[in-house]
Amino acid sequence: MRLNAKTAIVTGGARGIGRAAAELFAEEGAAVWAADLSLDEPFEHPGITFVPHDVTSQESWASLVERVLDESGRVDVLVNNAGLVGSYEGVETIDLDDWRRIIDVNLNGVFLGTRAVIPVMRAGGGGSIVHTSSMWGIVGAVGVAAYTASKAAVRSLSKNVALTYAADGIRSNSVHPGIIETPMVLAQDAALTQGIVDATPLRRLGTAREIAYGMLYLASDEANYVTGAELVIDGGSTAQ
């Protein structure tokens, strides 16, 4: 029970990596608030509460945190996981509306969520914030301009939060997945996905559960001396 008696918010919690994290955290004793725009398949674990939530809305964040405080009394962990690829276009060809939407979800959503929980964590004596970046937040990729820019910004923002709020007992770390078997990845062009897998040293898709285990470590007290770090879980892609 590595998260026993802790309260966690997981965004993008209805599917993919977010759902895997919500389920694993609940198995490890946390009261989990899985926040997402919609829910396709109900959670079976009684420790998970689903909340409709738009990460790009400051009002939605205020409502979510208020509800969690009212019912759980604290926020110990925030997993800023909600995100999308949105477009594989490069700088010259990406539609401006796509650019703005991707930045809004992937970066502004992380900013707003972090901003919303910091006062609560400070009042509670600290906490852990885990941000989902990407291997493409560390290394470049052809095209995918908005996604790579947003994920690199999340990596840097995570370090900024770590340094700014260390004295408050708030830890901030980023997770950098490679190509992972999620609904988002399975819905994209199969040849595109296979090309990324072929370039991955372990030659397979990662699983959402494998990413969730990394998040669990960073959320737990086992990582009390870990802040401002990058946990890369990418099958060896960025080692090349």
UniProtKB/TrEMBL annotation:
Any GO molecular function: oxidoreductase activity, acting on the CH-OH group of donors, NAD or NADP as acceptor
User: Do you know which InterPro entries this protein is assigned to?
Assistant: NAD(P)-bd_dom_sf, Sc_DH/Rdtase_CS, SDR_fam
Record protein name field? SDR family oxidoreductase
Give UniProt keywords alphabetically: Oxidoreductase
Give the family, as the similarity comment puts it.
Belongs to the short-chain dehydrogenases/reductases (SDR) family.
